């Protein structure tokens, strides 16, 4: 999807001048990503850290909740020397300044305590009411990637950066927009094309061809065998998973099934359920649909074509997960106006 959005570097310069001026001299900075951070969240955090280091000289720590699960993301963190620490290992009282990227307070997808102050939010998801008490807020939901916003921050502030940060930002935009194939605007394409000549192609190749364990393919087998199709809707349940990233990865993969336009996936991780929603239909808003699906159960959100959700405190037994799948499927089909529809297995046993 292409949106006619003009890059406004004057606005970006004004905003960054103000929050950097406010931040200067206040001490250590904490930058919080969303849980199980993806490339966009990691890139935004590292670019913000670089901006703060260059412009104010303040020490900045990037912290995350959950895990780095996906093979490509682990290679990205290692090869590009992304320095981050688990949020639960930090004394949060040591940070007079707290920033949040690619997420917002109280959304359910980050582990930062909701009752603690957040000073700066930079995000490309729809603005939440929870940001009303945040001093500095830059939310541009029309943007395909938060990394694009941080690229413009560096550009507006005339901050130079090396090939590793360029590679981080490029890969983030590439993965978040599926190579400018979904939820992108002209600002994303502009950043993508500017960063491309600066990329370390050898490292990018290693990221895109990351080795994975054999258990990784068991999830593919499980998803394919459990997937049910309801006209243009495909629903799959992975049941127990060792990384929540698998749900989103398989949702992307199964969206390639012929005549399928909508995919809903779920999997049980630790004490809750991770959800992922994908669509090829331009007349739907995935974030709104996800919020409808999890109403009363958990939290969720997203963009026009992609969304995610979390349902906490869910037992891992198979019967509970089957019932939850049935409930979510019924809600989805009712939301789409096509309930009841008989389901057919993706593959016949």
Give an overview of the whole structure.
The protein has 11 helices and 13 strands. It has 349 residues and is an alpha/beta fold. It has 2 domains: 9-208, inorganic pyrophosphatase (n-terminal core); 215-338, Roll (Diaminopimelate Epimerase, Chain A, domain 1), CATH 3.10.310.40. A 7-stranded mixed sheet has the order 11-12-10-9-8-7-13, with helices on both faces. A 6-stranded parallel sheet has the order 3-2-1-4-5-6, covered by helices on one side. The chain starts with 8 loop residues before the first helix and ends with a strand. The mean pLDDT is 94.
Q: What's the arrangement of secondary structure elements?
A:
Elements: H1 9-23, E1 29-32, H2 39-56, E2 60-64, H3 71-79, E3 85-86, E4 97-101, E5 120-123, E6 136-139, H4 146-156, H5 163-176, H6 186-195, H7 201-208, H8 214-226, E7 228-230, E8 233-240, H9 245-254, E9 262-269, E10 272-279, H10 286-294, E11 299-302, E12 306-311, H11 318-335, E13 344-345
Parallel strand pairs: 1-2, 1-4, 2-3, 4-5, 5-6, 8-9
Antiparallel strand pairs: 7-8, 7-13, 9-10, 10-12, 11-12
Organism: Syntrophotalea acetylenica
Protein name: Phosphoesterase
Domain DDH: 29-173
Helical content band: 25-40%
Helical stretch count?
11
Query: Which architecture of the largest domain would the CATH scheme give at its second level?
Result: Alpha-Beta Complex
Order of helices and strands: HEHEHEEEEHHHHHEEHEEHEEHE
The total of beta strands comes to 13
Question: What characterizes the major β-sheet?
Answer: 7 strands, mixed
Looking at the structure, the CATH topology of the largest domain is inorganic pyrophosphatase (n-terminal core)
By CATH, the superfamily of the largest domain comes out as inorganic pyrophosphatase (n-terminal core)
- The unreliable regions are none
What number of domains?
2
Organism: Syntrophotalea acetylenica (Pelobacter acetylenicus)
Pfam families: DHH, DHHA1
Domain DDH: 29-173
Protein name: Phosphoesterase
